[in-house]
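Before going further, learn to read the protein records used in this course. A complete example follows; check for yourself that the lines match position by position.
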Amino acid sequence: MNLLVNEIFYSLQGEGGRIGEASIFIRLSRCNLKCDFCDTDFENGQTMSLEEILQQIGNFPCQWIIWTGGEPTLQLTDEIIIFFKNKGYKQAIESNGTKRISPLFDYVVCSPKGDYEKIKNINSNVDEVRLPIKSGDIIPSFEHLPKAKKYFLSPVFSNNKTETDNNIFYCTEQVKQNPGWTLSVQMHKLIGIR
């Protein structure tokens, strides 16, 4: 079995409910969305076998894998998840929620970019919902989202500092007005790590 891998790196989780935790990031290529704020080159990648991936991540002193992308559900199967689980790894996924997310994951982040009702019907229960938000975006009500333990608003970072600051301010105000949400700023971008 092979996967098209964009990159593998070791760092800290920079946002959401597991912020600050050491994690192995496996970024898979391909995505079924074309978001204008995406900061990932998800088209290119290297074909790797599961054994090659295992060999590369074996150098890291961590047992948490975060499957991210692109959209990881386009490539991951239960068989692949079980392969890494049997090697002692816990696994999280960061998904846009447009495809069914396997219940075999240890932690599920759903980051919908719209079509909230459709996504809720496909993935009704997740660990966290994390919405990327720009200033002025309409915040959906919880009833239109998958059921989650935590709901995060994540300000979109831009190359324009003023735009980023406006997005952070907007999300902060939204959380103050709707305290069921929690602010999740991308710490890794603030402190300059991957």
The chain has a mean pLDDT of 93. The two ends are 28 Å apart (CA to CA).
